[in-house]
Amino acid sequence: MIRIIAGEFKGRRLKTPATDKVRPTADRVREAWFSILQRSIHGARVLDLFAGSGALGFEALSRGAVSADFVELHRFALATLKANVKTLKVDDRAAIHRADALRFAERLHPGRYDVAFADPPYAGQEAARLVAMFRLNGVRRSPLRRAGSRPAGGHVPAQRVRARLLDRAPCGPTHSGRRHAPLWRHGRHLHLRPVTRIAVYPGSFDPITRGHEDLIRRALTFADRVIVAVAVNVAKQPLFTLEQRLALIQKAAADPRVEVRSFDGLLADFVRAAGATLIVRGLRAVSDFEYEFQMALMNRNLAPGVETVFLVPAFDLTYLSSSLVREVARFGGDVSQLVHPAVGQALKQKFAK
Ligand code: PNS
Q1: Are residues 31 and 104 in the same domain?
Q2: For the whole prediction, is pTM greater than 0.85?
Q3: Active-site residue (options: 261, 284, 300, 350)
Q4: Is 13 annotated in the active site?
Q5: How do beta strands 115-118 and 189-195 pair?
Q6: pLDDT digit string (tens) for 46-85?
Q7: 145 is catalytic
Q8: Which end of the chain, N or C, is surrounded by fewer C-beta atoms within 10 Å?
Q9: Which residue's CA is the closest to the ligand 1 atom numbered 1?
């Protein structure tokens, strides 16, 4: 019997397979991994390779993972996994795959999971093969990438995979006065963590201009996903309703890597909840600087660890702003070079007499 360490199912017991061929990941190892990963688990889609009893995947579900996929071949372990899913009543969040873990890993699609665990058997080459597959630290050609096609535009997202080796023995809390044992050591246990870099591009987007589109494209050169976040409660009285602004962004920035969302309240809270690590803002002229600088510092204060990245737009878009576009369109000027056709059309309708 093993127990869930923390979270929703804290203290609940898990069955372990009735065979000595499969051994559950020890509590101390689980504890160490989860203390390292604590900020990555909430809301994550988790993969548990060589799942055994599923201790890692269930621990992740207990700590707020949205889903856990368990991959296992051994029939006793499969029966145990099913029993544990039933006991914890997580049928809606858990999937069991009867498959060879290495083959399963080889066929992964890019971005399919946020966190992947693998605790392969002692004997055999599984650990070495997994490391070779994901490579160590920030690998470009991972199976996660190879399995998928390149997105439109020929751009390859910086899908990176960190694979780290963790030895079982020296983990766990160290006693005061003693030196911390190195956590990352060459050993049999693997923690594979595909890292998706998410950037939030916030603003009023009233309406989205070619300048915004240019910045989204630039952000996608270093972020795997960009969330265009439209602020609900800005002091200004917008020309377009929130729904109209969202719909226009969807059209102007159509890309599978771009998500369009609205947010209310603090940007820092939204960014953290979205699992993003970057805020993207455009800097057009010196006049933007003071306000942007204040905002970046305040956001850093509110969400340490989230960096604001300033991007410079294309030269011919430097003086473009939504307010300028609205002004020109209001008096019947031609804005076709400055906005997506759908936005041009929407402006025409707004200002039709
Ligand atoms: O396009 P804009 O109007 O310059 O965007 C400004 C926006 C929406 C990014 C900013 O006002 C904002 O982040 N508002 C959310 C509320 C918030 O977090 N305020 C504190 C910022 S330090």
Answers
A1: yes
A2: no
A3: 284
A4: no
A5: antiparallel
A6: 889 889 899 999 999 999 998 999 999 988 899 999 999 9
A7: no
A8: C
A9: 203
